[in-house]
Amino acid sequence: MTKADIASLSELLADPKKILIIPHKNPDGDAMGSTLALCHYLRGQGHKARVMAPNEYPKFLKWLPGNDQVLVYDRNPEAGNRYIREAAVIFTLDFNDLDRAHTMSPMLKEATGTFVMVDHHEEPKDYAQITFSDPKKGSTCEMVYDLICALGGQARITSDMAQCLYTGIMTDSGSFRFPSTTGTTHRIVADLIDRGADNSAIHQRIYDTNNPSRLQLLGKALNNMVILPEFRTAYITLSQEELDSANYKKGDTEGFVNYGLSLKNIIFAVIFIENTEEGIIKISFRSQGDFEVNQFSKHHFSGGGHMNAAGGRSSASLEDTVSRFLDLLPQYQDKLNA
Ligand code: 5GP
Ligand code: MN
Predict the structure, then answer these.
(1) Where do you find CATH 3.90.1640.10 in the chain?
(2) Are 128 and 117 in contact (CB under 8 A)?
(3) Which residues contact 167 (CB under 8 A, 6 or more apart)?
(4) Taking the model in full, what pTM does it have?
(5) Confidence (pLDDT) at 67
(6) Overall fold of domain 212-336
(7) Closest C-alpha residue for ligand 1 atom 1
(8) Cα of 81 from ligand 2 centre, angstroms
(9) What is the CB < 6 Å shell around ligand 1?
(10) ipTM score assigned to the predicted complex
């Protein structure tokens, strides 16, 4: 975050503008928390700001302050295209490659507004006129907090904004346990609590909203888990049929992949989830320590993300995808056992 970038952003925001704020496809707590917090801030500064998500997001995020005004591009692409065309400024938050904006990306590539990226993933693309990129940060919400402070807005952080920012920091840090959690993270969170974030209520709203069918699906997933001690790896599969029989809804499998890492001596956890509608297997990778799952995903499964948390996909069948994955493991045996 250079002084020059802050000055450029300050100048860009000096007079009221139409601003669009976009999270990545399949938005998570950090994506929705950061976009909504920024939206509240910009509206407070007199801008016409809007959050537009590429597609649907989980129900457990739909209590976030400002949620009722979020546009979902997939629901009405024509209206969405109009917003994109009319926006003078387009913020892209929690992603750094326009292709991660899903069906919205072709329109974004033609947009004439000024792009501002705020993101903590590695290898940012250079589509934005102003780029705030810091892979050392645990969440985009921390970056939005820093940005608002750098713009002189700390005292204008409302309790709605604090709720949104706290949510993203909490979800992206695994409730403050991942290595990216620093003293600074805790100082930010302390300030957010002072400004109205209700930590206990937020934990409940995010984590304690299970319905019985989600727990049954978790049971199914844990039953399907395969443990490969020689590779310190555990993986889970869920077929479309299994999802359907548990009455699957978006977000239901959130967090399942982490159970593999809770096993002693397992440092690489993977979940393969079949999506027949999109004709893909969606894959999530998690690791502990130095095993870089973003590189693994990038090289073999058209994905990316962070060193310890990444996603990818395969257009082969579930069975073929898993066997391709298993074929890859021997070449990583040394790294997995380092
Ligand atoms: P998840 O497994 O929860 O979908 O994603 C884990 C992390 O990897 C998130 O930070 C997410 O943004 C990132 N990620 C997931 N899928 C992809 C992908 O296809 N490409 C890239 N570059 N990042 C991804
Ligand atoms: Mn994030």
Answers:
(1) 3-207
(2) yes
(3) 29, 32, 33, 61, 64, 141, 202, 206
(4) 0.91
(5) 98
(6) Diaminopimelate Epimerase; Chain A, domain 1 (3.10.310)
(7) 311
(8) 25
(9) 24, 284, 303-306, 309-312
(10) 0.94
